[in-house]
Every structure is written in C-alpha cells, then in structure tokens.
Design brief:
By secondary structure, the protein is α/β, with parallel strands linked by helices. The chain has a single domain, classed as Bacterial extracellular solute-binding protein, family 7 (D-Maltodextrin-Binding Protein, domain 2, 3-Layer(aba) Sandwich). It is 50% helix and 19% strand. It is built from twelve helices and nine strands. Strand 1, helix 2 and strand 2 form a beta-alpha-beta unit. Helix 2 packs antiparallel against helix 10, helix 4 packs antiparallel against helix 12 and helix 6 crosses helix 11. It is globular and about 60 Å long.
C-alpha cells in the first residue's frame, strides 16, 4: 500500500509537470509563456514589457507571446518562485535576493554601499553578465535580461538620520532578504517581517513606520502616501532578472528563441534609462508633495558601512560565496582606478 501511494504521488508529480509544460505549448503550435512580477500595471517597467511582448508577437506571427501576472497578484516573490518551481508559471521577474535557491551569487549585487553610482553598476554588470547568464543556464533557467530597480532609500513616518533612530523605530524587513535581516540584527534593529503586498497596510495601521524602496517603487506601490521623510542615503542597488524555465524556453523553435532574446536585448538599454529617469522624477514628486528629505552625517554612514561589513561576514547572513564578493570588489577597484 505504501509503495502504491509513493508511486501514485510520483506519477501525479510527473503528470502535473508535463501538464504545465504542455500548457506553454498549445495544440496550434503557439507558445504562451506565463510570467509573474511585483511590478504594477501602468508602471514604466510594465509599459516597456508590453512593448517587448507586442514586438515578439509581431515578429513570430503570434507564435510566441507572454502572459504577465503583474502587481503581485500571484503573491510575493517567494510565492512566485514556488509556483515557478512546480510549473504553475514558466518564468518570473524577481530581485537578486529571491534567486538564492537558484544562483546564490546574485545576492552579492545587493550588498549595501557596494556601488557609488550608476556608472559602477553598468561597468560591473557588463563584466559579470556572461557569468550570470551561463550560471543560470546551467541551473535550468534562461536569463532574458536585467530588470532595473534602482537605489533604495529609507522612507519613514518618523525622522531617521542615525542608527539609534532606526533602533527606536518599527522597521519593515522583507521576508525574502536574509542579508538585510542579518544587517538589521547586527545593528540591533528588530525588523518586522512582511511580504511586499502587506507593507502598505502595515504603514496604514502603524505596524511599521520605516520602509525602504527606490523612489519610483514607493510611488507605484503607494507607500509614499503614508510617509513623511526620506533619508537621503542610497543604501543599496536593487536589481532583478527576467528568467524563464529552460525546459519551457527550449520548446520554442530555434528562430523564435533568437527573436525573443533579441527583442529583450534591444530594449535593455531603453528600459534601464526609463526606470532611472522615473526614479529621479519620483524623488522630485515626493519632495514636492511635502515629504522631507533628511541628510545624514558622514560619521553615521561610516557606522552603517562597518555594521554591514561585519554582518555579511557572519555565517548564513549572505548567500553568495565570499569568492564572488572578492571578484566583484576587484572589478570595481579597477574601474575606480581607471576613472578620471
């Protein structure tokens, strides 16, 4: 009986996997790739993705198209990753911290204060792009492109300009970000874990009074409507990637695979510039609406950096290998020396 149950369960799992793979490949020879993202409908990112989708449909004579579940309708990134693993969606647009189960090295990109500006971001990604794409491929995923997020800042209902201010506050911590949790712990901050779709309610009810996001994200998620202050320190760069399961992508005809890749590559630079411009504009909108921009002393920033350095050295705090951090740091040191 036990053996029968095991065989039944295994058989069901195989059948379910085959069903979801087949769902991407219709009987008419058309392919619908289902992907999920937290990006809201109407955001600059979603508008550009819609253009990419239209371009792909036109070039493939409607043989290939994407169906996007936007705005977190399928849950937070952890939920989306789970659905992707079992085949309920074929791909996702997720931040680097959510990819630790697939490629832990990605999380290195979100070390606080790693980048000083966008020039450094662009340089490093150009150096590491092939490595990340090849590594994703080896792990069973096709990386279609980078998803620009931008530099995050603290946003709050109470002034935050020192580490002591953070210790006294009710600070949100994203459940999918173990490195951030480790840094807050080292800092003596008791973070309040919430999924991203629950943060707005947390602000509305007073459950949290400090959150963090790129400016454009804070506007599209409506967090800015419940905050009074922005701490003017770009803490970390948020990036994500657009991925599709390799066993699904490989079902596309070879020519159509090339069309999909080329379409994303063509729009990559435009997508990056659009999101960066949107972040600059969003910061102006927020300060123009009465939200106060708070400056932080160099001494406090140095304290934060030292705490970060200690935290990411702790076992289990960062998913990426230290060798990857050394490689990334070496690239950035070369760039800083060469920059006039």
């Amino acid at each position: 009986m036990k053996r029968t149950a095991v065989l039944y369960t295994a058989g069901f799992a195989v059948a379910a996997a085959l069903f979801f793979i087949a769902a991407a490949h219709g009987a008419s020879g058309k392919h619908v790739l289902k992907i999920a993202t937290l990006a809201p409908e109407g955001s600059a990112w979603m508008n550009l993705f819609d253009e990419i989708n239209t371009d792909i449909m036109q070039q493939t004579d409607n043989r290939v198209r994407f169906r996007v579940y936007a705005g977190g309708v399928l849950g937070d990134e952890e939920d989306v990753m789970r659905k992707m693993f079992v085949g309920q969606v074929h791909g996702a647009v997720v931040t680097a911290s959510s990819l630790t189960r697939i490629l832990p090295d990605m999380d290195v990109l979100q070390v606080p204060f790693l980048f000083q500006n966008y020039e450094e971001v662009d340089y490093l990604l150009s150096k590491m792009d092939a490595y990340f794409r090849d590594s994703m491929d080896k792990n069973g995923y096709v990386m279609l492109g980078w998803s620009e997020g931008g530099f995050i800042r603290l946003m709050s209902t109470v002034p935050v300009v020192t580490i002591e201010d953070l210790r006294k506050a009710k600070v949100w911590v994203w459940a999918q970000a173990p490195m951030t949790r480790a840094i807050f712990k080292e800092m003596g901050v008791s973070g309040i874990p919430l999924s991203m779709p629950d943060v707005l309610v947390g602000l509305q009810t007073g459950l949290v009074d400090v959150v963090y996001a790129p400016p454009a994200g804070a506007i599209s998620l409506q967090w800015f409507t419940k905050t009074k202050y922005i701490t003017n320190v770009p803490l970390m760069y948020i990036t994500g990637i657009i991925i599709v399961k390799k066993n699904v992508f490989d079902q596309l005809p070879t020519d159509d695979q090339a069309i999909v890749r080329a379409s994303f590559n063509r729009q990559q630079e435009r997508m990056k510039k659009t999101v960066r411009a949107e972040n600059r504009s969003a910061l102006q909108v927020m300060t123009g609406s009465g939200i106060q921009l708070l400056e932080v002393s160099k001494e406090e920033i140095e304290k934060f950096k030292k705490i970060t350095d200690r935290a990411i050295q702790q076992p289990g705090s960062a998913s990426f290998p230290q060798e990857t951090l050394i490689q990334v740091t070496a690239h950035l040191e070369v760039f800083r020396k060469e920059k006039p």
